[in-house]
Every structure is written in C-alpha cells, then in structure tokens.
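Fill in residues.
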C-alpha cells in the first residue's frame, strides 16, 4: 500500500500508533474549523449535544468549558475512544460528557434527543450519506441545529491523499442532500476552503 493511501486510511479511522499521531495532525489542521464550531454552536446550559467523530477528544474538551447540559460523542475507532476518554475524564466522571463507539449510520439514541449536533471533517467517510443525514435529522429536536464543518471539493482536490477513500462533495450537493433528509440550511460560513454549513431541522 502506498504511504499516501495508508495515511488517508488513518484519517478515515485513526487507529494504532499511526492513527494516534494522525489525530494530533488533524487537531492542527482543524484549528480554524474548531473555532467556527465554537462560534456558531451557541451552547446554552440546557443543551444536549452530539459530536460525530470526536477523534482524540480535543474539541469536546474545548467545548466542555462552556455551559451545556450533556455532551455526547461517537467515534468508530476504539483507540480514539480510549484517548478521548482519558482527555475528558473529569467531565465523564461528572456524567456531563458521554463518549461511546458508534457510527452515524445507525445512531443509538431516541428520536428528538439532541438540541445540537456537529461534525468536523468526517462527512467524506460516511458510507451512505443519505442514511447518515436521515439519522442526524431523526435524533435532532425540531428547530435543532446541525453544524457540518468541512473542506469543499475544490480545496480537497488539490490534496493527493484525498484520492484514497475520500468522497468529495460540492457545497451545493451537500446542501441538497441535507435538505432532502429534513434539514434546512440557515447559514454558510466560509474561510479559505473551509466551510461551516449550519442547518436546522425543519
């Protein structure tokens, strides 16, 4: 396997020592997107929140300094679950942060459970995007907020690694897919290739 393809695989599912190292690289790459989420999530003390694909738990730890009720997270990697759990141990012990292994394709939560859901640079790896967006909509409360923070296809097409295992989307296609699954676009924020799509449940 080419080294580029190997690293791309770790971006999709960070596991093993290489995956742990890649997760910290992603933290650096995602810094402006973390700030976009923090700026637009608008947490309140009553909010129950979900992060899809928490990686090593850095953004959850940052958000846990704000007011919220409970912050849930799912990730497909056992190694990321262990790392993020260690990083957020104090909030987990208070039952304010709840991390589990899981997939967005089949969310283990009842309907209308979350006030807010967000994800950063994971959508390229969702196997059945319509099913995943439908699940996001199902567990989100009416008028709840979904933030999808990503890089658009024009930006990612310039990066060789994205030829391996990444599904790239234009913003128009993503918006159409989300709206077909019960989510209405309320705001778009763009910064140098990064795009923060803010949806509300219809």
């Amino acid at each position: 396997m080419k080294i580029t393809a190997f690293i791309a695989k770790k971006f999709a599912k960070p596991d093993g020592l290489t995956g742990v190292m890649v997760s910290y690289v992603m933290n650096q790459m995602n810094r402006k997107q973390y700030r976009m989420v923090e700026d637009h999530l608008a947490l309140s003390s009553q909010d129950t929140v979900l992060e899809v694909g928490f990686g090593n738990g850095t953004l959850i730890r940052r958000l846990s300094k704000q007011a919220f009720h409970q912050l849930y997270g799912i990730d497909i990697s056992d190694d990321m679950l262990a790392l993020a759990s260690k990083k957020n141990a104090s909030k987990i012990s208070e039952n304010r942060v709840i991390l589990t292994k899981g997939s967005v394709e089949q969310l283990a939560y009842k309907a209308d459970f979350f006030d807010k859901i967000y994800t950063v640079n994971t959508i390229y790896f969702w196997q059945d995007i319509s099913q995943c967006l439908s699940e996001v909509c199902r567990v989100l409360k009416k008028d709840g907020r979904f933030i999808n923070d990503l890089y658009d296809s024009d930006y990612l097409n310039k990066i060789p690694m994205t030829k391996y295992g990444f599904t790239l989307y234009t913003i128009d296609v993503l918006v159409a897919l989300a709206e077909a699954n019960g989510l209405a676009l309320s705001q778009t924020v763009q910064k140098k290739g990064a795009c923060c799509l803010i949806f509300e449940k219809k």
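Residues 79 and 184 are 34 Å apart (CA to CA).
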